[in-house]
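Hi R.,

Here's the input for the adenosine-5'-diphosphate complex you asked about:
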Amino acid sequence: MSKNLPFVYIVDDEESVFKAVTRIIKSAGYAVETFNSANSFLSLQDIKHPSCLVLDIRMPGISGLALQETLQNKGIFIPIIFITGHGDIPMTVKAMKAGAIDFLPKPFDQKTLLDLIRVALTKDKLDQKRLNEKAKIQELISVLSPRELQVMKLVIKGMLNKQIAQELKLSIKTVKIHRGHLTQKLQVKSVAELVRLGQLANLKSSV
Amino acid sequence: MIDGWDAAFDSIEDLISIHDNNFCILKVNKAFSKSVGIPPGKLIGRKCYEVMHAANGPRLSCCHKLAIEGKESKTEENFEPLLKKFFQVSCSPIFDNNKKIIGTVHIARDITGLKRAEERLRQHSNEIEEQLKVIAENAPVFLLQLNRQGHIDYINHAFPQFESDEILGKPFVNFISPEFRPLFLNMLKEVNGEKKFIENELQFAGNHNEPPWYRIKLSPIYRKRTLDRFLVICTDISEIKGKEFEIEKQRQEIIHAHRVLALNEFASSLAHEINQPLTAILSNAQAAQRILSQTDPSLMEFKEIVADIVLATNRAAEVIHRLRKLIKKGEVEFIKLDINMLVNDTVLLLSSNALIKNKFLKTELTPGLPAIIGDRIQLQQVLLNLIMNGLDAMVDAGPEAKDLVIRTSLKDPKTVVVAVEDSGHGFPKSSLGKPFDHFFTTKTQGMGLGLPISFSIVQAHGGQLIVKNKPAGGATVYFSLPVSKDD
Ligand SMILES: Nc1ncnc2c1ncn2[C@@H]1O[C@H](COP(=O)(O)OP(=O)(O)O)[C@@H](O)[C@H]1O
Ligand SMILES: [Mg+2]
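And here is the predicted structure with adenosine-5'-diphosphate in place:
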């Protein structure tokens, strides 16, 4: 199997179900890895991307819902499609609120499953791209001096050079020099670009 | 003879006389002459039978005659009409120097008082016997005496089904319905030991469609410490039995109704249970369609898929089969059962239900337990009730209460015990005395029939059901079942 195939992880305690689902997904040209419990998935070292997780909402031990929460707490991003059964409505609502792609009530049609996987993989690609960007920006920001970072946060807040100088008790000239350095380091050409960068990096605008 | 001897003879109360071998009186003591009212002088030389019996010759049983003929001492008891008295008489022969018999010493002891007492006793016991006979003949039960072989020697009155003379001398077992004959033969065997009596309920033979029921009490009668006869007391219990059957039928109806209602309760978990294989079937079938539409479909994989579809279909069918068996309203059927298998079947039926409630069913089964005798469906119903109760209690207790454990073990070589242990809130203190009361419930949706029905099922199986709260919280319900005899 080629390394670049999108990956679908399946976590389901029911062998007969995950075997059948695996067949469908494989026939659609994805790489598949199956786990029969939440714990065995959690012990997976490295999640490949783009990928998504097809997850049984109800399992003995750690439930699908609990696995979703654990992944979020660990800062692991992977789009989740839940497989749900009869009488799982309250759990499904929770899962959706926590950001699941969608849910598939059993028994489900292969087309619905594959459509959802496609949606999930697209989302994962975007997520990964955003995450990569964020990582890159954070790397750029990390080379700024503390003063430059202070100046940047105030620029994003919408302050003029004069106001910034006042706020930081610096001369306007010094502020201008810091601005020059930081725009050079961050390779931005406009204030608008700087603001977008700040948002992507989740920069708090407080000093 | 020495004179002192005469005085001695005269002082004895017994009648003493000496006769020659021709029945002539040679000598008498005082008591003798006083009794017959003739002075000794007038007695000497007279024939004894004249004096004593006013007869012309000796009686056949005269012991004087017998003593002379037999040359040895003889005794007899007789009544003397002349004297109106009973005597115990003994005669001892007297020999001369040539060992020739020359007469006898005749001693007669008055035993009239003794005889009278004896007679009174005899009369009394005859009266008692007579009374007993009247009682027996009018008793509302049938009394029979059987000889050691079990043949009928006596019956107090005729059975409605059989004439007395049709019965006497025949083996009693012939009149018992064939299916109960082994039981009765076993009673005969067993009562012939330590046992004072054995009681059983059985049906008599007959061509009615519902032959009469009798309670039979069999007691051994001993003579000189060995078994001599049997006493059989038979009470007609057909009417009671009829009522019992009616009550039993009603009980079974309630048990069945409750079972169906209980099934209702976990219908949703059954939907889940069926959904699993259905999902596998649909997904597999669709996977097969996809594979077939590929340019180079793998026949191998196709085969595997079809095999999995068959497996999943069987599994769905199994769920439905299990369910059907439980809903079924068949005859109660007592057969040999493996208790562990029964627990596993029930746990399978309920595991989805537990999962939906976020609880866990665990089993700790002792392997190799002896078989028990019981009705599969009803025992499963007991397990079902107890597990559902445990799950209910654990749902109430919150998400911390997770595990419900079902254990099986051997209490003693004749008893298997099943324990259903939950981690719920335990029985409310106020209810510990009455969980078996019908309609006692603390649940809004409860009916309060689960425990009383389980109790009655276990009881009908010869077992016991008890509930206990654990010190650390939660409840354990135990029930015991006797093991199969030939296991
Ligand atoms: N495992 C248990 N733990 C605590 N309480 C129980 C348990 N089982 C039964 N009970 C109590 O006994 C009552 C009677 O039970 P049951 O006869 O099965 O009727 P129901 O379940 O319909 O209430 C219950 O309502 C509950 O109060
Ligand atoms: Mg109950």
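One thing worth noting: The radius of gyration of chain A is 23 Å.

Cheers,
M.
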